[in-house]
Design brief:
Elements (H helix, E strand, L loop, with lengths): L1 H9 L1 H20 L1 H54 L10 E10 L5 E7 L11 E3 L4 E8 L3 E9 L4 E5 L5 E5 L7 E8 L9 E4 L11 E9 L6 E8 L8 E6 L3 H12 L1
């Protein structure tokens, strides 16, 4: 109690000033409609700003929790999508699942770009796993450590992805020209294919890296040389490759066995 009295005595001048100021504002509000309106507006502005500050602070504190929740929800949705897209496959055992990871470095300015992700052997990520987002494909795992992995970006001139036209199922090789990070080229699609601008491009599923029918982009233009039997198709990507955060490694349990069989066959 004595401390409270001492504090009042110490700050008495400030307290008296605040008391007189409050009385003045109250009297102005009572005597003038203009001042009442002005005070009310000021109260709304100050209250809104305080609420905004409190809301921003609360949101910031909850941001990590919300982000983790969204990652888990996206993983569940992606797992369901993978199951749905593969339920009509000939092999009943065909099953993919998603492993979330965080992008900590993303290259897109060079001709041969790589991505570093936080997620490695401890999370079940292995070499040659496909990396995707909810919007499209991102790359293929190249090297893996315990907690980190290096990914060959689809914006790498050394990488070729098997892709197809959704409407006609004609296949081709998806490559990057090294110019525009938002566009790739689908090559070797035969002229017998009915190609239109706006057609959707999906993964072809001719390997264990990417499941079939994952979205990639859409046809923005196409042409063919008169002496060629194939189209060169420009594909605008659904996924913005300059803006990557959470990605998912695609795990296919039978991948190692299939790769071993294919290697033996080639030898």
């Amino acid at each position: 109690m004595q401390q409270l009295v001492n504090a009042i005595i110490q700050f008495r001048n400030g307290l008296v000033y605040l008391l007189l100021l409050s009385c003045s504002i109250y009297l102005l509000q009572q005597q003038s409609a203009y001042h009442r309106s002005l005070i009310a507006k000021s109260g709304i502005v100050i209250g809104s700003r305080l609420n905004s500050m409190v809301s921003s602070g609360t949101t910031y504190l909850q941001l990590r929790e919300l982000n983790d929740r969204l990652i888990k929800e996206n993983k569940i949705l992606l797992d369901q999508l993978l199951k749905t897209q593969n339920k009509f496959q000939v092999l009943d055992s065909l099953h993919f699942k998603a492993i979330p990871a965080q992008v900590i470095r993303n290259g897109f300015l060079n001709s041969y770009n790589y991505i570093t992700i936080r997620g490695g052997q401890k999370q079940g990520i292995l070499p040659e796993m496909g990396i995707v987002t909810a919007k499209g494909i991102v790359g293929v795992v190249q090297f893996v450590e315990k907690r980190y992995a290096q990914v060959i970006s689809i914006l790498n001139k050394d990488l070729q992805i098997n892709a197809k036209l959704k409407n006609s199922n004609h296949f081709g090789s998806l490559v990057w020209s090294g110019k525009d990070a938002s566009k790739m080229d689908l090559l070797d699609v035969p002229k017998t294919a009915n190609v239109k601008e706006g057609d959707t491009i999906h993964t072809g599923g001719m390997s264990v890296i990417f499941p079939p029918d994952l979205p990639i982009g859409y046809v923005s233009s196409f042409y063919s040389e008169s002496t060629s039997n194939f189209y060169d198709i420009e594909v605008t990507l659904f996924q913005d490759m300059t803006n990557l955060s959470t990605v998912y490694a695609i795990h296919y349990p039978q991948a190692e066995e299939i790769n071993s069989v294919q290697k033996s066959t080639n030898e």
